[in-house]
Amino acid sequence: MKDLISFSAAGTKSQPSHEVLKFAFLLLDGFCSLSFACAIEPLSVGCRVGGKSQFSWRIIGEHGTGAAASCSTLYAVDVDLRGRISHDEILVIIGAVGNQNLISARVIQWLKKQSHSAKAICGVGTGVQALADAGLLANRSVAAHWECHPQLIGSHPNIKLTPSIYAVDSRVMTCAGGIAMLDLMVFLIHSALGANLSQQLSDKLGCWRFRNSDQRQPRLEPHRTAAKHPSLSIAVNLMLENIEKPLSLSNIAELVGLSRRQLERLFRAKLKISPRAYYLEARLKRARELVTQTTMTINEICAVTGFGSVDYFTSLYKNAYDVSPRHDIGELANTLKKTQIPEFIE
Asked: Where is mean pLDDT largest: 16-30, 193-207, 273-287?
């Protein structure tokens, strides 16, 4: 058996003089270690940045011997499902990302009993499915990984699925998982402790912008479809590799070994979109990533995404996303200032 990796705060950190946020992380079998790292690292860094312990956390596993991640690494836990959740803890259930791992009946029963004792509850990845199976998401706005949507819609038609990376509905939070967990944790830290600490935290973590709950999840089905068709895959890769200096469709068709007309038919048959529209959408998606996640100017973004005119780019961007790029710049900071603090944050 592999050595257990311990991220536990129990017994290793002095108790904070004034606890602000306490977390209990339930790691489901096959959980995503990236989601867990994005949850726990901001707390660890936050304690160091703040100069004192402003958070505490403990790790719960389905089994007392440890929790196995999807990468087969075994993580140490503080307690198994015999543990109880206290009224001042935020219970976070971290599962896999995308694929549905089997959630045991024992976990569901434990959630039904313990969730009402928690200050707030949060499902991450397939942890969202666990909350839904426990009857805790009825009539709530729910963010889940897009690959989980079909199963959730079929098994729980009374939940309100959103395309967002995370959602906060009263004392219930849901998150698609992966890096989106980092965005949610920074939101919570900002809500509880203010902009100063969250800004210091972002500097330490090397992240200049964090996404808010309005950010939609990227969907990659077209790329997966393209991967099944060699000519289409080559054409898509040529587009994605030539964002800064776009190729002409005639040039792409020639490189693929097709006529332009054949290329048009291939895209429409397999992706239900023209190659011109697909290429433009890929460039706009890249531009929006730069707008919302970097400090680049609009002129600089235009230059690296192949748009020669700021006015033309702005028009296309607004048509695609219903807001101008200037509106999106600094959106997170403005949103956080206006965002209502969750009711469970005192």
From this structure: 273-287
pTM: 0.67
142 backbone dihedrals φ, ψ, rounded to 5°:
-130, 130
Report the amino acid identity of residue 102: L
Residue 1 has pLDDT above 60, yes or no: no
Q: Which domains are seen in the chain, by residue range?
A: 21-217 (3.40.50.880), 221-331 (1.10.10.60)
Nearest to 59 by CA among 26, 28, 35: 26
**Percent of residues, the chain, with pLDDT higher than 90:** 51
Stretch (H or E) spanning 175: strand 172-175
Q: What is the pLDDT of residues 32-68, one digit of tens each?
A: 999 999 999 999 888 887 656 688 899 999 988 899 9
DSSP bridge partners of 56: 22
* 145-152: long-range pairs with CB below 8 Å, 24+: 145/97, 145/98, 145/176, 145/177, 145/178, 145/217, 146/176, 146/217, 146/219, 147/98, 147/99, 148/98, 148/100, 151/100, 152/128
Place of tokens 């944790």: 185
Beta pairing partners, 89: 22
Contact present, 118 and 89 (Cβ < 8 Å): yes
Question: Which tens digit of pLDDT belongs to each residue from 229-257?
Answer: 889 988 988 998 899 999 999 999 999 99
- Which residues, other chains included, contact 96 with Cβ-Cβ below 8 Å and sequence gap of 6+? 28, 30, 31, 32, 70, 125, 126, 177
Type and span of the H or E element at 150: helix 149-155
Q: Which two tokens stand for residue 169?
A: 């509905």
Question: What is the DSSP track for 18-42?
Answer: S--EEEEEEE-TTB-HHHHHHHHHH
**DSSP conformation letters of 76-139:** --SB-TT----TTEEEEEE--SSS-PPPPHHHHHHHHHHGGGSSEEEEETTHHHHHHHTT--TT
